[in-house]
Amino acid sequence: MTGIAIITEACIGVKDRACVDVCPVQCIYEFDAVSNALFSEAEAGGGVEHVHQSNPDAVAIFGDSMLYVNTNECTSCTACYEPDVCPVGAIYAEQNVPDGAAGSNYNSSDTAKGQDHTFFIQLSRDVFAD
Predict the structure, then answer these.
(1) In whole angstroms, what is the distance from residue 44 CA to residue 113 CA?
(2) Full set of structural domains in the chain with CATH
(3) How many CA atoms lie within 13 A of 59 on its CB side?
(4) In angstroms, rounded to a whole number, what is the distance separating the alpha carbons of residues 29 and 2?
(5) Most buried pick, 45, 65, 103, 117, via CB within 10 A?
């Protein structure tokens, strides 16, 4: 099922960035603490494509330890949350983000199974200030 991509807890401290390479619209961002901005790249390590100002309160929660999807730019293409893309299973379609309840469906490679990931839905919106 298609839906806006949400990056969750398993990305923290990993930032594999395979998702950056497959995103056709460069809507996956990394935080740069020096410039206090979020930037995206056409491919991992391939130069800055887009820049957005961050919301300091929201980005302070995880800072540069994870990647963020700009939900206003995501086209719901499904490329980043295909099973073979994120090695830690951190990316879900918004409507499939598990809430930790019994019977929640987690990606098979999600290293944070059993956790409530719904916090990351709002964080994805709040982290972008502009």
Answers:
(1) 27
(2) 5-126 (3.30.70.20)
(3) 24
(4) 20
(5) 117
